[in-house]
Design goal:
Blueprint lengths: L1 E6 L2 E4 L4 E9 L6 E7 L6 E7 L4 E3 L7 E6 L4 E6 L8 E8 L4 E3 L3 E6 L1
Parallel strand pairs: 2-11
Antiparallel strand pairs: 1-3, 3-8, 4-5, 4-9, 5-6, 7-8, 9-10, 9-11
Length: about 120
């Protein structure tokens, strides 16, 4: 079992920044990779970024150059630094832990970007 708790969401003006955190507990050794997803109202959940157990990162084209995924193993925490935020980044952001045979999800944190 893996438990995930997101934090750091809020209301920010366009062009601003936020840093999301995802605190991880439980069977951390079983995690192969971790990812951020987001879901805007009326839309499907969208992949944002991932980081592998070896630290290799990948970002979706929609956020590349503005968002950065990272982690602090000592704190068992994953981060998403979001800069140059746009109104279209408004969504609930979820962290995800990929294990075999299942995925785990956090409860989500709301990010609202005003124009």
């Amino acid at each position: 079992q893996v438990q995930l708790v997101e934090s750091g969401g809020g209301l920010v003006q366009a062009g601003g920044s936020l840093r999301l955190s995802c605190a991880v507990s439980g069977s951390i050794f079983s995690i192969n990779a971790m990812r951020w997803y987001r879901q805007a109202p009326g839309k499907q959940r969208e992949y944002v970024a991932r980081i592998s157990s070896s630290g290799i990162t990948h970002h979706a084209d929609s956020v590349k150059g503005r968002f950065t995924i990272s982690r602090d193993n000592a704190k068992n925490t994953m981060y998403l630094q979001m800069n140059s935020l746009k109104p279209e980044d408004t969504a609930v952001y979820y962290c995800n832990a990929l294990t075999k045979p299942t995925d785990y999800w956090g409860q989500g944190t709301q990010v609202t970007v005003s124009s």
